[in-house]
TrEMBL record:
It comes from the Bacteria. Pfam families: Methyltransf_23. This is Uncharacterized protein. Gene3D superfamilies: Vaccinia Virus protein VP39.
Length: 345
């Protein structure tokens, strides 16, 4: 029986994602452009996770892209292939937002502590006590690596983005005298995973961005690592909201998110990797998204601040309590899973 944990406070989301409320127009425009690029790729033939042939009509379309549930594993697939050129165009434009700096970025530390330390704590409370060595793949700027170091674990990070790795190392250096992040190309990325001596491989918000997730599944299976810690985005109420409110930035299913997991496709993926789940933490931002959809539309309808304040008082202030109902119903926008190899030591 896996350890189950539900929900988390939304306060950091409210303060750190203010843009989602105030910059709806530019965010929506960018998402639609990215979806157009995606819709220009060749049609996807097989499920991103179980690789069964996708048959039948799309289940729904949102912001210019059709989506189809896999008949075998219920994974939600975008109708198009995320080709090499799509991925390059998507992530090259993301790269280079942050630059290596000698100055301590206070937001970096704040984000590592507020968002990533709770993730590390969930891992620590799930695993038997030991000083684990972690390889964080797709580490980006290394928030999870810093959070692990702050919790006195041994941790290294791996990413294909040199800019993010350099920025992250420049920040982490302020906390400990090392540069734990390493940048590698796509081929070396999977080789490093196969050859790691880490006890735990973590992939937080990474698997959904991989062009060929099967390469990751294989690399993990072949590695000596006994544990895997991952988080992935899920099909949930947020996706229905995005289908209805087409004038609001779709946070869950656009841009780099071309496919989403379901409870069944998580089980299928665990089977492919030959792991068993020992810890599951579900928390979503579905109700935050509902509140955002309402607020953006009320504001564009020109309602008074008094009305907006009343909506906050009666509904916005209860987001966490309402979200908890969805989380505990296993129907929310994100899941964290700690899993152990079935063939493990
Ligand atoms: Zn499938």
């Amino acid at each position: 029986m896996a350890i189950e944990k539900y929900s988390k406070p939304s306060t950091f989301y409210l303060s750190s994602k203010k843009d989602f409320f105030s910059s709806n127009e530019p965010l929506l425009k960018k998402a639609i452009e990215q979806n157009q690029l995606y819709a220009n790729q060749p049609k996807r033939a097989c499920c991103k996770i179980c690789q069964s042939r996708l048959v039948g009509d799309v289940d729904f379309s949102s912001h210019g892209v059709g989506y189809i549930f896999c008949e075998k594993c219920n994974h939600l697939n975008g109708s198009y292939d995320d080709t090499q050129s799509f991925v390059e165009k998507m992530y090259m434009s993301e790269d280079g937002k942050e630059y290596a700096s000698n100055y301590l970025d206070e937001n970096f530390e704040k984000r590592a502590i507020e968002v990533y330390v709770p993730k590390v704590d969930f891992l620590i409370t799930t695993l038997p006590p030991k000083k684990y060595k972690i390889l964080d793949v797709g580490c980006g700027s290394g928030y999870f690596v810093l959070a692990s170091l702050l919790r006195n674990l041994s941790a290294e990070g791996l990413d294909v983005s040199r800019t993010m790795v350099e920025f992250g190392n420049s920040q982490i250096r302020h906390h400990c005298d090392s540069a734990p992040l390493k940048s590698v190309d796509e081929v070396a990325f999977f080789d490093e995973i196969k050859n790691t001596d880490a006890d735990v491989i973590s992939a937080i918000g990474v698997i959904e961005h991989l062009r060929e997730p099967q390469k990751f599944f294989e690399a993990f299976r072949e590695s000596a690592s006994n544990y895997l810690y991952y988080s992935v985005p899920m099909f949930s109420l947020s996706v229905a909201l995005e289908n209805v409110f087409s004038n609001v930035f779709p946070r869950q299913l656009s841009g780099g998110h071309t496919h989403l997991f379901t409870e069944e496709s998580i089980i299928e993926m665990n089977k492919i990797m030959d792991v068993s789940s020992i810890g599951e933490w579900r928390f979503g931002t579905d109700i935050m998204d509902l509140y955002r959809n309402l607020t953006v539309n009320l504001q564009s309808n020109g309602v008074s601040q008094k009305m907006v304040d009343y909506v906050y008082k009666g509904f916005g202030s209860k987001i966490d309590a309402i979200q908890h109902i969805l989380d505990s119903n296993h129907s929310c926008s994100e899941i964290h899973v700690v899993a152990v190899k079935n063939s493990g030591v």
